[in-house]
């Protein structure tokens, strides 16, 4: 959903790698908080009028990161709900700078659970070749960045999405909100 509901900032911003459960947990959190869920990947696809793999293919990753920065800026200003960012949003300095002071939660997942969950068959352009090795390299580069922007880090390994949602609410002290 784009541009609906009360203006931002969001109550929860989720970051983390593909398979961390941002969408699954984000939807649960939105239900629990009685607010809307929004996903910047969805916003980008709506604005560009094509799927993300096509944007990567046609215009390249740097252009995608620019579109993503603009989508994050818009969503932070216009969405007082739960917001999930794309898995690689933290790679961009400008996007990270937008996240200062916000209730950002890093959903952590290890390689084992990530592979099991994602199945690595979905259209994820950065994991298209040798997914396990790519995922490891991607996490080595990104873990410090996810941690840098996060107010809280929540592990998702061996936890149900409901338990993860619970832990996020606890970490942000939103239980009685
Ligand atoms: N805690 C969990 N335990 C088991 N399975 C999970 C958990 N969280 C998510 N999943 C499953 O893992 C898959 C990926 O989850 P999801 O799409 O929510 O991840 P994501 O972080 O949004 O990924 P992407 O970055 O690709 O958007 C889904 O099939 C989902 O049902
Ligand atoms: O990890 C990444 O870099 C990406 C994750 C997805 O959410 C999309 O934003 C896109 O496929 C890039
Ligand atoms: Mg998702």
Automatic annotation (TrEMBL):
CDD domains named in the record: SK
Binding site for Mg(2+): 23
Entry EC no(s): 2.7.1.71
InterPro entries listed in its UniProt record: P-loop_NTPase, Shikimate/glucono_kinase, Shikimate_kinase/TSH1, Shikimate_kinase_CS
Main localization of the protein described in the UniProt heading: cytoplasm
Keywords tagged on the record: Amino-acid biosynthesis, Aromatic amino acid biosynthesis, ATP-binding, Cytoplasm, Kinase, Magnesium, Metal-binding, Nucleotide-binding, Transferase
Molecular function in Gene Ontology: ATP binding; magnesium ion binding; shikimate kinase activity
Subunit structure: Monomer.
Protein name: Shikimate kinase
Stored Gene3D superfamilies: P-loop containing nucleotide triphosphate hydrolases
Main function: Catalyzes the specific phosphorylation of the 3-hydroxyl group of shikimic acid using ATP as a cosubstrate.
Cofactor(s) named in the record: Mg(2+)
Recorded catalytic activity of this chain's protein: shikimate + ATP = 3-phosphoshikimate + ADP + H(+)
Subcellular localization: Cytoplasm
Designated gene of the protein: aroK
Binding site for substrate: 41, 65, 87, 142
Key word Transferase present: yes
